[in-house]
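Researcher: Here's a chain I'd like modeled. Treat it as a single chain, no partners, no ligands.
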Amino acid sequence: MRIARFSIDGNVAFGAVEGDKPDELVLDIIKGIPFAEFELSGTKVPLSKVRLLPPVLPNKVVAFGRNYAEHAKELGNEVPDAPFAFFKPSTSVIGPGDEIQYPSFSEELHHEAELAVVIGRMCREVPRERVKDVILGYTCANDITARDVQRREKQWARAKGFDTSCPLGPWVETDLDPSDLTVQLTVNGQQRQLGRTSEMIHSIEDLIVNITEAMTLLPGDVILTGTPAGVGPLAVGDEVSVSIEGIGTLTNKVVKRG
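Model: Modeled as a single isolated chain. Structure tokens:
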């Protein structure tokens, strides 16, 4: 099931996305929330009539860096022996079609296409064999990074946590095997990144076991699983799209921060 979060006539709701052709997609409005038992209302709205929002509003976004060997290599970094985590605040999250605001404190903004895992239930110290039980589904993410700030400040809070630095969407796909999916990114229609989730150094199971040893994850929290090689610069006016096999495409435009 594809679960979207959307607004219509000033109201926010979740809906199940139905249909195959992009111009014929409809939303069957969900009674309740997707983190508990829910029903489909049978009330359907054309996707073209709503505004898609970030598919979830996470309490926290836990991101893992250098999880693809070629990406670590292209930036001159060693591959970490264990998962390497950092955080993006909830205020960094935006949805499909929202604007990425180029921060005034950076002159080198980069894109990073990633598979995102959406947590479906509160969990801590999750054993490897139970990881699938705590996952609601998967969505596309773009870990927007102020690369010059990342290099200069040596820690990543501002470089990766600024407002609008975490586009998510367009929806959450709940029925998906994430082990070998194509991940690609284009800028203005030109391909920049192309990889497969099978190239991850540490699996999704590794990442969730690792982080839940330390902290509790809540429903709607998001795990970013790393980016394949090909990261590069973004400029004001660029349109950047992340596409992941079996999920869909997340598109955002870069604008000057007002």
